[in-house]
Every structure is written in structure tokens, then in C-alpha cells.
């Protein structure tokens, strides 16, 4: 995929892709999307190592990106066997941060990381 790269240890999707869905084994515990309207959308969640995840491939993260009208960032919860009368939960926290969309389309990744860290 020519518009998908790894930069500064992060997967970056910078434009439309041939195949719109990606599943990713990420232990980072966060996802971010920078809009052309200068908003950084952040999702934070707890990654549980050595657990099975509920996505059909077992990955912890799914991204659907058609590049024009919609993007879906989806952290997956773990696959939990729940007995009658018991419960399970998966918490995702959402944040919006102001961040300028770059003229060249390449986000300032250290700045993204700093904004993500500021989300508490």
C-alpha cells in the first residue's frame, strides 16, 4: 500500500488505500486520527497482553479507511467467556485535541504522541 508507512514506530495511513480494512496487533493502547478540520481524534484503551482478542483475526485493533468520506478506528476488547450472572466490560476513552493538519499531509508524530500523552 503506497499510502501506508511506518514512521517513528507508528503506522501512518496518509491517503486512500487499495484495501480499506486493516487489522493490527498493536500494544500501544491508543489510536489517533488527524482530520483536515484540524482536530486530532484519540481513542485510549487498555491492551491486555497474552489475551485473545474478539476480532476474527485475533488482532487488538481494526482500522477501516476509505480515504474520502469515513474512517473507523476500532480497538477490540478481549474475548471473554461469561458465565450466567457475570459481566465483562471494555472501556475506550475518546478525546478531541486541536492540531493543525499539515500542508504536506505528514503529521508531526512527536506532537501527536505528546497530545495523546496529555489525554487523561
Keywords:
three-stranded antiparallel β-sheet; 120 residues; mainly beta
Question: Could you walk me through the main structural features you see in this protein, from its secondary elements to its overall organization?
Answer:
- The chain is built from 1 helix and 8 strands.
- It is mainly β.
- 12% of the residues are buried.
- The model has no long low-confidence stretch (mean pLDDT 90).
CA-based shape: globular
Task: Please indicate the percent range of residues in DSSP E strands (runs of 2 or more).
Answer: 25-35%
Low-confidence stretches: none
In quaternary terms, these chains amount to single chain
Secondary-structure element series: EEEEEEEEH
What order do the strands of the largest sheet run in, or round the barrel if closed? 3-6-7
End-to-end distance, in Å? 33 Å
Amino acid at each position: 500500500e503506497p499510502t501506508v508507512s511506518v514512521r517513528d514506530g507508528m503506522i501512518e495511513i496518509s491517503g486512500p488505500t487499495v484495501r480499506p480494512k486493516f487489522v493490527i496487533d498493536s500494544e500501544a493502547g491508543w489510536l489517533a486520527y488527524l482530520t483536515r478540520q484540524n482536530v486530532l481524534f484519540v481513542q485510549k484503551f487498555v491492551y491486555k497482553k497474552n489475551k485473545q482478542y474478539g476480532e476474527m483475526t485475533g488482532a487488538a485493533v481494526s482500522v477501516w479507511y476509505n480515504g474520502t468520506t469515513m474512517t473507523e478506528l476500532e480497538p477490540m476488547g478481549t474475548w471473554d467467556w461469561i458465565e450466567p450472572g457475570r459481566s465483562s466490560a471494555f472501556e475506550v476513552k475518546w478525546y478531541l485535541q486541536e492540531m493543525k493538519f499539515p500542508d504536506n499531509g505528514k503529521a508531526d508524530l512527536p506532537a501527536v504522541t505528546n497530545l495523546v500523552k496529555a489525554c487523561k
